[in-house]
Design goal:
By secondary structure, the chain is mainly α. It has helices at 2-18, 29-40, 44-68, 72-75. The chain is globular, with a radius of gyration of 14 Å.
Length: 83
């Protein structure tokens, strides 16, 4: 699920690149939605194209967080356990 969420983030970044728009590179996952919405708020065509993708990303992100039981702060500090 997290991989698909990242795929959608990269898709959004790619669409922005096609329009000559660049999001900040060190953008944390929890701030991604807000940054994209601020960027597209004045452009009706981009809003139409990206809002549904952004919503899908949000659903995946929330589902991942619920199923993993992780908080956004803990995600950055947890390490995988190898058996």
């Amino acid at each position: 699920m997290l991989t698909k969420c990242i795929d959608l983030e990269n898709e959004i970044r790619g669409l922005f690149k096609a329009f000559g728009i660049k999001l900040p590179a060190p953008l944390k996952r929890r701030h991604f939605d807000e940054a994209v919405r601020e960027t597209i708020e004045g452009d009706e065509a981009l809003s139409f194209a990206l809002l549904s993708v952004l919503e899908a990303r949000g659903v995946l992100d929330r589902t991942f967080m619920e199923r993993s039981g992780a908080s956004p702060r803990r995600l950055g500090t947890t390490r995988p356990v190898f058996c």
